[in-house]
Amino acid sequence: MERFLGKKIYGQKVAIEGQELKHLKVKRIKAGELLEVLTQEGWFLCKFEGFQKDLGICQIVERIEYTPRFPTITLYQCTPVHLKTMEDVIVGVSQAGAHRLVPVISERSFRDKKTILEKLPRWEKLSLESLKQCGRREPLIVDHPVELSKLETTSDLNLVLDNYQEGLKIKDLRLEGVKSISLVVGPEGGFSSKEVQMLKDKGFIALRLEPYTYRLEAASLVAVAILTNLV
């Protein structure tokens, strides 16, 4: 079934507009067809009624209920020096099942906080677009940036991915009873030894991906995908 982004306009009606309306027309959706539509109030099964000016109008059939996946994974991603790489990270970890992504400013990362904040609307849009493709129900939350030094162990399991030092192999993790995971991933070139020690002192567990060293965007994707499937 086709999936679209829309908004509730009145009563049991949902409107599809803008770029989503173009997709609706490309898909040649006809009156009477059923669609899944994500609005500000959640997912709905809708029946497409037709076009009205610059809108595609749908009638809500029922709300689509779903159970959130556990454990929830928060990815603390150090912003890549080439900031556009963050787009690949967002699309990848959204499809892999991350719940939340927090851009992190570290010694070797991209450090201009103002520019990062300006990118947030674009990153949130990518999160929504990837949601339509991969079948997940809740969009990846893209949060405001934080400094690495401000991170704390707030989850049931707190990990820092670091292939440059000794650490626990990801295949050896045991997630029984774990409801939330924090995963910190460094920028290109990894963390400084001082940063890794700081995180370990706070209670983060060093984690390794083997047998190879991955590019930043691949490391985040692979780690999140494996953690999602260890349950």
UniProtKB/TrEMBL annotation:
Organism listed in the record: Thermocrinis minervae
Keywords, comma-separated and alphabetical: Cytoplasm, Methyltransferase, rRNA processing, S-adenosyl-L-methionine, Transferase
Function: Specifically methylates the N3 position of the uracil ring of uridine 1498 (m3U1498) in 16S rRNA. Acts on the fully assembled 30S ribosomal subunit.
Protein name as annotated: Ribosomal RNA small subunit methyltransferase E
Lineage of source species: Bacteria, Pseudomonadati, Aquificota, Aquificia, Aquificales
SUPFAM superfamilies, alphabetized: alpha/beta knot
GO terms for biological process, alphabetical: rRNA base methylation
GO CC terms: cytoplasm
Family: Belongs to the RNA methyltransferase RsmE family.
